[in-house]
Specification:
The chain has 160 residues and is of the alpha+beta class. 22% of the residues lie in helices and 36% in strands.
């Protein structure tokens, strides 16, 4: 009975999970997005992103914004992998910052960064990508170090 129930549950949940993943990806079909995948290969979240790949774009980031949609963010693409620090100067929205290495592996998270703070925020180790999303996003979606970012719809190389 238990094996039959498990098989029945697996048959129903498998297609549902696939359908949800496809809907998440279709949400980004018209533009760049980042999907964060857990260690077991399951998608945790998909984020429609604005790409900051030049020095001036990275300098401004999400400053002066009053709102950031759910499942939206900004991906900072750097020309190399190095220690990165961010601040919240002129940023009104609390943010989670997800740092990733050259392979897209999440190396650390700064959760709920305080708006308007000039305190430098970063994680141990080198990062080539930093994804900024609404504060609390990582906790809501179970995102943690070791997860992987899958990139779609934009160049993985910085312009400057």
């Amino acid at each position: 009975m238990e094996a039959k129930l498990h098989r029945h549950w697996h048959i129903r949940v498998g297609p549902l999970a696939l359908t949800l993943a496809l809907f998440a990806l279709l949400g980004c079909a018209r533009g760049p997005c980042v999907t964060i995948v857990g260690a077991g290969g399951q998608p945790r979240a998909t984020v429609a992103v604005e790409v900051a790949s030049t020095g001036p774009q990275r300098e401004v980031g999400l400053m002066f914004r009053k709102h950031l949609d759910d499942n939206a963010g900004m991906i900072f693409v750097f020309p190399d992998s190095a220690p990165r620090d961010f601040w919240m100067h002129n940023t009104a929205i609390p943010l989670d910052m997800i740092f990733a290495d050259a392979d897209g592996r999440v190396t650390g998270i700064v959760a709920n960064a305080q708006p308007y703070s000039d305190k430098l925020l970063g994680v141990q180790g080198n990062s080539e990508y930093v994804l900024e999303v609404n504060g609390g996003f990582c906790a809501r979606n179970g995102i943690k170090s070791g997860d992987k970012m899958d990139f779609s719809g934009f160049s993985l190389h910085a312009s400057q």
